[in-house]
Amino acid sequence: MSASLSSADPRPSSDVSAPVGWLGVAGLSVWILVCHYWPQIADAFQLPGPRERLTGPYAALMGLVFTALPMVVWSLAVDKVHRRASTGLDWSLRRPLGDVLDVSITKLAGLWTTWAVIGALYCLGRWYWSDPYLIAMDVLGTLVVPLFVASVPYVLWLDRHMVNPRDACWHFGALLIGREPFDIEQVKIHGRAWAVKGFFTAFMISIVPGGFANLVGPDWSGFLASPVALAMLLVTLMFVLDEQIGSVGYILTMKPLDAQIRSANPYLAGWLAALLCYPPFQMMAPADRPLFYLANTRGDDNWMHVLAGQDELLWAWAVLLVLLTFCYAWATVAFGIRFSNLTYRGVLTNGPYRFTRHPAYLAKNTFWWCASMPFFVSNGSAVDAVRNTFFLGCVSAIYYWRALTEERHLLAEDQKYRDYHAWMNRNGAITAPLHRLGQALLRNRAALAAKGAEQA
User: Fold this and answer.
1) How far is CA 300 from CA 40, 421, 454, in A?
2) Measuring CA to CA, which residue among 160, 13, 174, 146 is closest to residue 89?
3) Which residue, 282, 301, 327, 429, has most beta carbons within 10 Å?
4) Which of 42-46, 167-171, 176-180, 440-444 has the lowest mean pLDDT?
5) If pLDDT is split at 50, 70 and 90, which confidence band does 446 have?
6) Where are the domains of the chain?
7) Which residues fall within 8 angstroms of residue 66, CB to CB, at 6 or more apart?
8) Which of 342, 333, 370 is nearest to 278 (CA)?
9) H or E segment at 145?
10) In terms of Cα–Cα distance, which of 67, 156, 150, 140 is closest to 107?
11) CA dihedral defined by 31, 33, 37, 40, rounded to 10 degrees?
12) 156, 184, 163, 161: which is closest to 172 by C-alpha?
């Protein structure tokens, strides 16, 4: 029955094939094993240098290379993403260099000015002057000159093959130079896209080293006997997968990979909902923020204290938390090289997105509720329990708001997403029942309103 239903109402195809993200996981896993077992590897091959696990920030950042390389190779060699019309490239076009030189100069003026503005904002934002952002500033500062040099041949090469080389970046350059007319809406599109890239790329690079060190550094042999320890190790692994693949997504916003930012969310509500979840604007952490929900609890490890001494429940709860973080990481893995917040970079319909349109938000919030157990507080205060539960509810409401603003953006951008949205309402294992319940409540509400009007 389910097979016939599937063929009668097929799921829209995904712009990212399933193997892409898992190849990134495989590449990263190899590097994690190398870094963890480096002392044994160095001994076996009699390599010079210290016999220590590779837990430093640059070992963590090298993980980005091991993650990205297999995904890029598969995308180009198998999926052939560079040949898609959505790239805006036509490789049969080979314009003479002289024909695109003026366009490219204008575009480079826009690109370099954009980088200068982002660099200035990094200098002005005090949070970028201290940990954990220092590593991001070091990396980006080191790359300034190489990127500046490489941007010239890259832009010239792309403009020879672009169907419309006068893109949003060109319009920003035209505004700066002032010799050709420009479209202010295209300038806004350019500004929003680079605001996303500038803000989130630095953030993602800054969080990669900490998680990587927490995963690679400990002796894994001691984790198997304890459900708490094993759960924490596996949860850390899932967050490392999310951080590494997410960082690759922000870095590889390139047209030849069909991973360019096609548009960033144009709605202020979307930006507000997203930025409330990230430093320095984050509202729920650290402890002095208005929506901090862990006061008088032991944090996201509260479950292990509440269930202490009950081994069966500890193991069951550990499995639940690992499954939730797996779903969260899977939602990022499914994006492959296209993950980023607040952007439209194609439509994703496979992986966990077969079951719900927002698997990451659902899994993350369920994890927080199950791990922190805000209704159990160490001091036994009912007031604190109510307060903690209320504020975690506020956090979940923010993520619901984020989901709505993201859908508003994507529904306006692409008919394919509208088709996927409707398909999920009919077939999504999680979304469809919730949609039917919502529709039933609306019908009931309308019926009660009509009955009340008749009685009046």
Assistant:
1) 34, 33, 52
2) 160
3) 327
4) 440-444
5) confident
6) 90-162+165-217
7) 27, 28, 30, 31
8) 342
9) helix 134-161
10) 156
11) -80
12) 184
